[in-house]
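User: Here's a chain of 257 residues. Predict its fold as tokens.
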Amino acid sequence: MWKDFSTIIGDNSLLCVGVLLNKIATTLVIGETEQLIATVLPTNATNKAVTWNSTDISVATVSNAGLVTSVSVGIATITVTTEDGNYTATCLITVVRAVEGVQLNKTSDTLVIGETELLTATVLPTNATNKAVAWNSTDTNVATVSDLGLVTGVSVGIATITVTTDDGNYTATCLITVINRNSGVEVLQTTSSLHIYPNPTSDRVYFSNPDGTEAVLYNAQGKLLLRTRRDSIDLSSYPQSIYLIRVGARTAKVVKH
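Assistant: Prediction complete.
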């Protein structure tokens, strides 16, 4: 606190009547620093010496020059005290753990019109302070997404669902392909699996085919697009969608993005 008057003593020294800080509160990420500036009043006071103190040095420390360093998540009060008169001013320091990224439980999925899928976003690190996220769909005519990450298939097509962190604007995406209930892909599925990579892809996919077995490419409606006896298929000329590759009795879905 400070007084609104000055006092002059016999030796012509001008006494301190208060002190102010440039900030009364601030938020820091762990490891950040903040320079607090103390103004002794009046500005022409003879003794402008001050001391600094933190209520919790495990949360935030402060140097003799007022430099605050955040240490761990929590709250600490930094106090500056005048040597002349013991006047004080305080700044509330809130230390948070910053977001470093976000992940989704799926990078792609296929829905039948009317079906729903709950996407789960994991903000990293898991002990980040602000875990708020926002959801968005590139095409709400194909798939919508709620504030909780619930995706609903609306019509045949492809949409990308994006989750964005409030802290740092980090993003993760899931490619959603919406098909008709009687889609050929669903009919063509078998219990035998075929490992393909990379998946999703933007161009060529690879798979094991040492015997030169015929490999067949189908679109999401079950239409045959390509036959080959190679161990890879180039999808670069095909539109974004879900495709099915069958090599003998083995099948696998691949996402073209």
